[in-house]
Amino acid sequence: MLIGEVARRSGVSARMLRHYDSLGLARPTGRTDAGYREYSSEDIRRIFHIESLRSLGLSLSEVRRALDDPGFKPSDLVDDLVRQTRERIASETELLTRLRRIGAAEPAAWEDVLQIVALLHALESKSAGKRQRAALSSVPVPVEALVEAALSETDPNVAGALRWALAQSGEDGLALLAEGLGSPVAQVRKRAVQSIAEISTGEATALLRDVLASPDLVVRRCAALALGTRGVADAVPTLIDMIVEETNDVDAADALSALASDPALEDRIATGLVDRLARGTLDSPARRRLAQALADIPGTTASDALADLSRDDDRAVALTATYILKLRNAR
């Protein structure tokens, strides 16, 4: 079969067939009566083998080795191709993500594009200072990039700057932060709820309410502290638990005090504290912390509970309650 017919039937251009011939990769081995070189069935089979291997991403030198080296191990080459393909996909995915983020920022000019690219590079810098400056930049950083950085940041100062930047963007990053709440990595879940807590919108508050049902204790407590300052009564049980367990107990007591500024909630909070005190399983320090939390809860329910505690069998608890009562009466 002559080169033109081979090209027509195989789909390989005559130019490429001549290139294979010049490289000695696939040469026509026959001759016609007129002296023209002719491809045999075996030659054509080799051409199809070459094209098959090229479709896997092999270079022509790798194809030659695969076809001509009797000691060649296909598994080694396939493993290498898998590695190269993964690296290429990762690189292309990174590029696609960067382009999408630049596009989301809607740059008006190439100068805007260059500024955004510089900020994205800065967010990925090994320097905490550069990452922090990027977060605080006057040039808006794409929200998706901010969320990704906030969920992975380990430096507390940079993390604070990133949360601030996210709060300035309003609710734009909430959907991505909500995905972070479902991460299998505990630290990512914690960073996600901390970032949501900085966003003072109704949607953020609703999301924090949902977090109160999370099995992750750290995430649940962080949400409760934020909700307490927003006047959400659903946070009360978790805040009381935090006082009992001496986990951010001062902050939890402050949050309960803020909630109790609403007259409709003061009895509910006082009753919750009293109910926990009534359980006989608490140790003395826990009962003393609960008594201290009652100090900033207005109303007769809290006062009556403190009066009862002033006669408590535990001297430390009784003295704490007595002192608090004196302060309340002096007001």
TrEMBL record:
Gene3D superfamilies found in the cross-reference section: 1.10.1660.10, Leucine-rich Repeat Variant
Keywords on record: DNA-binding
A GO MF term: DNA-binding transcription factor activity
Domain HTH merR-type per the UniProt entry, residue ranges: 1-69
PANTHER family to which the protein is assigned, alphabetical: HTH MERR-TYPE DOMAIN-CONTAINING PROTEIN (PTHR30204:SF93), REDOX-CYCLING DRUG-SENSING TRANSCRIPTIONAL ACTIVATOR SOXR (PTHR30204)
Name of the featured protein: MerR family transcriptional regulator
Organism: Actinomadura rubrisoli
